[in-house]
UniProtKB/TrEMBL annotation:
UniProtKB keywords: Signal
N-terminal signal peptide: 1-21
Name of the protein in question: Fibronectin type-III domain-containing protein
PROSITE patterns per record: PROKAR_LIPOPROTEIN
Signal found in the keyword field: yes
Gene3D superfamilies (alphabetical): Immunoglobulins
Species classification: Bacteria, Pseudomonadati, Bacteroidota, Sphingobacteriia, Sphingobacteriales
Amino acid sequence: MRKLLICMLATLLFAACSSKKDDTQNVAALAPPPEKSNLLLPIANSVCTTGTVISTTQSSIAFSWTAATNAESYDIVIKNLITNTTAQQTTVSPQVQITLDRNAPYSWYVVSKSSKTTTTAQSDVFKFYSAGLGIVYYAPFPADAVSPEYGVTVSGQTTNLIWKGTSTDNNIVGYDVYFGTIASPPLFKSNVTDVFLNNIPLSTGTLYYWRIVTKDANGNTSSSDTFQFKTK
């Protein structure tokens, strides 16, 4: 009889725990996911001149974005486009003050999060320059790869390289395209005035690398990351 009571009690406890676990999972499954934020400041493709100057090399920059529906916290991710170093900070407020190097280009975005679900939402990506002392003209932002995307596998005997270039002064005059099968690809074509290069011949089973150097009317240049893709 005693063994029977113990077995019944254990069964009830297991059922209660299972029910609680199922309820928790159901709540997480039913919780509405956070929506993405809209970035406000610094403005996209701008020179941020409103930061608080800390020294000749650093400024404190105010970042702000719209509060996202169903979000409890945010991860703000900032990347220095020259050094490729990334910094991340978590906040419950849709604004934060961050110290950055002056006269440097950055990209940033925000990830909306909630403790009620594992689903997150990422904002668009903005680029800006942290204003430098006495700087009048700023180099273009490093170009972004549009197609082929980094790490994809493509098929066919040719491909089209497509990228996106931006600058604070809207004075980009051309691009130099580097392309090849080594990690530091050689110059393939210079002074391209479009943001694409079509019908580039490919070999099967090959890993290709490419990067873009953006040039503006003031003689400033910037180099993108080196992108790569494979062929079948």
